Amino acid sequence: MAVFDQGMDVVAVAGAGAKLLMIQQQLNQVISGVDNVVSSLAKNWGGLDQGRFQATWQGNRGHLTTISGNVGKMGATCLSESAQQVSGSM
């Protein structure tokens, strides 16, 4: 693996982009999974404690959604930048 001061290893950067997009999908699956669990708890747990539990998730859900979106943007940037390098060197 080379260390670059300038320029780009387009294969490595494109690979990182693909990995980041895969991680974004995994994060979205985590969000969906927790949504399903929290939703099912409402059928089996009532009262103030359950309400606080659900509110805690809703408060954290937005943070995780933002992180997932940012990871996706990072992946897309890697793919875009590496593609630009390839097309610019032709």
In words, what does this structure look like?
The longest helix has 41 residues, at 48-88. This protein has 90 residues and is mainly alpha-helical. 84% of the residues lie in helices and 0% in strands. It has 2 helices and no strands. α1 (10-44) packs antiparallel against α2. It is rod-shaped.
SSE topology:
Layout: H1 10-44, H2 48-88
The low-confidence parts are: none
Our estimate of the beta-strand percent is under 5%
On the 0 to 100 scale, the average pLDDT is: 92
Distance between the termini: 23 Å
Helix percentage: over 70%
Largest β sheet strand count, sense and barrel closure: none
Give a count of the beta strands, DSSP E runs of length 2 or more: 0
Number of separate helices? 2
Rounded Rg = 20 Å
Shape: rod-shaped
- What is the H/E order? HH
Q: What would you call the structural class? A: mainly alpha
Keywords:
rod-shaped; mainly alpha; 84% helix; 90 residues; single chain
